[in-house]
Write a structure and sequence with these properties.
Blueprint (H helix, E strand, L loop, with lengths): L1 H45 L3 H76 L13 H9 L1
Length: 148
């Protein structure tokens, strides 16, 4: 059982490694092809007159900058999309926090009310006659319980 698990993990690692090697080979082939094109372009440029070489170089640079610009625009769009997604998540999170806070406040209010009711019930169970003795800070609580 343990050996099978190890064997399965080894197979997974081997598969991952093979996929990574294949991806690197593809990337290397693409870079080799790009390098060959650049060498051909360079050789062609050497055969041209100096004025045409300058113009050709400028066209190459314009093409390169245009491609770089497009890549940057794509990156900006991706980042803006991610920003919008994060803002939505933040709003949802804030609403959830507000909801939790209000629920906690409601629960605390209920607990306080239950405590007040227990105080009132405890006092009702005793048979009091005459005046009551109480602390000054309990006065609002006693008034509220008398009203309710």
């Amino acid at each position: 059982s343990f050996l099978r698990l190890l064997e399965a993990q080894l197979q997974d690692q081997k598969r991952d490694h093979e996929e990574e090697v294949e991806a690197l080979r593809n990337e290397m082939d693409a870079m080799t092809e790009k390098l060959e094109k650049q060498q051909q372009t360079f050789l062609q440029a050497l055969q041209l007159s100096p004025e045409v070489q300058v113009e050709f170089g400028l066209q190459q640079e314009i093409t390169r900058l245009t491609n770089e610009n497009l890549d940057l625009k794509e990156l900006v769009e991706k980042l803006e999309k991610n920003e919008r997604k994060l803002k939505k998540q933040l709003k949802i999170y804030m609403r959830a926090q507000e909801s939790e806070a209000s629920q906690a406040a409601v629960q605390e209010e209920r607990r306080q009310h239950e405590r007040n009711m227990q105080v009132a019930v405890q006092r009702k169970e005793k048979d009091f006659q005459g005046m009551l003795e109480y602390y000054k800070e309990d006065e609002p609580l006693l008034i509220r319980n008398l009203i309710t």
